[in-house]
Amino acid sequence: MSNPVFSNSDVFGEPRRTGRGGAATAARPAQYGAYGAQAADAASLQNMYEAPSATPVDTQRLTYTDVIMKTGGLLALLVVVAAATWSIAPGLWIGGMIVGLVLGLVNAFKKNPSPVLITLYAAAQGVFLGGISKFYESWQDGVVLQAVLATLSVFAVALFLYSSGKVRVTPKFTRFLLIGMVGYLVFSLVNVVLVWTGVLEGWGMRGGTMGIVVGIIAVVLASMSLIMDFDFIKRGVEQGVPAKFAWSAAFGLIVTLVWLYLELLRLLAIFNSGD
User: Fold this and answer.
1) Using CA atoms, how far apart are residues 172 and 224, in angstroms rounded to an integer?
2) N or C: which terminal CB in the chain sees fewer CB atoms within 10 Å?
3) Bridge-partner residues for 242, per DSSP?
4) For 118-131, what is each residue's pLDDT tens digit?
5) Distance (Å, rounded) from C-alpha 5 to C-alpha 13?
6) pLDDT of 214-231, one tens digit each?
7) CA proximity to 263, closest of 150, 158, 153
8) Which sign does the torsion angle of CA 152, 153, 154, 156 carry?
9) CA-CA distance, 16 to 58, in Å (whole number)?
10) What keywords appear on the UniProt entry (predicted)?
11) In Å, how far are 27, 62, 127, 175, 236 from 108, measured between CA atoms?
């Protein structure tokens, strides 16, 4: 799938088959046999059937509120750390990038979410984004604010398109996204190698007209990845996965949002520079 945080998870997948009635059926009193069965206490049965139905909170299952709260908290931490890094030590962005990459890989392939490691990932990404954003802002005044607003706008549009049913995650959608992301990854790795070895200068193949085209493609892929993330979360809620996986859902969204922000920041910088 698109986001390894979700695609490698055992819970954010295809709906699992359950018997009719699910947990509600299991909660009902067992049928008593015709011979030797004890009569159930009438008052206890009456109280049980009059009790309100259990909510996802009561059953410790994943809810959209859980995902929103965890995502909001991680984003708040990321922004605070980014602001502090911007003001105090923007040069630490390389260390934040490396730590964030390592923690991102560790969290992406963990079967059970670790709130501590996910929180540390958000902090590391805050250091990375704070420093690199300061670099872009010193080069082009106002580009960071533009990138932030663009990221929020793309997120809102993607959420609207998915929630309204105008865009659906189909097998064709998934295949297109998978092929596009693999191609983009290969292109990015080749470009980095050519720049580091001195074959290309500056942005490498990410500069000029080609850079703009590649940047637009990357933003489209990140937007599609967001829609895939929404679909994975919806499946998790509908399947009643444990509430602890709200951390995994929030982490997956943060990963995609960071990627989207970086692509928009780079794209806007190329647009504004006229290079």
Assistant:
1) 12
2) C
3) 61
4) 999 999 999 999 99
5) 12
6) 889 999 999 999 999 999
7) 150
8) positive
9) 21
10) Membrane, Transmembrane, Transmembrane helix
11) 35, 19, 20, 21, 16
Residue 273: name the closest of 173, 115, 142, 181 by CA. Answer: 142
At 54, which amino acid appears? A
Q: Which of 92, 185, 176 is nearest to 131 (CA)?
A: 92
Phi, psi of 270 (to 5 degrees): -65, -40
Distance in angstroms (rounded) separating the CA atoms of residues 214 and 210: 6
Q: Which two tokens stand for residue 120?
A: 């540390």
The answer to whether residues 185 and 214 touch, using CB atoms and an 8 Å cutoff, is: no
C-alpha Rg value of the chain to the nearest Å: 24
Asked whether residue 7 carries a pLDDT value surpassing 70, the answer given is no
Residue of 228, 203, 206 whose CA lies nearest to 217: 206
Which backbone phi and psi does 109 adopt, to 5 degrees? -105, 10
Distances from the Cα of 66 to the Cα of 72, 104, 108, 163, angstroms: 10, 21, 19, 18
Grouping H, G, I as helix, E, B as strand and the rest as coil, residue 70 is: helix
| pTM exceeds 0.85 for this model | no
Q: In the beta sheet, which residues pair with residue 61?
A: 242
For residue 27, count other CB atoms closer than 10 A to its CB. 11
Are the C-beta atoms of 155 and 226 separated by less than 8 Å? yes
Which residue type occupies 159? L
Q: Residue 134 and residue 103: Cα distance in Å, rounded?
A: 23
Q: Which residue is listed with tokens 């990404």?
A: 125
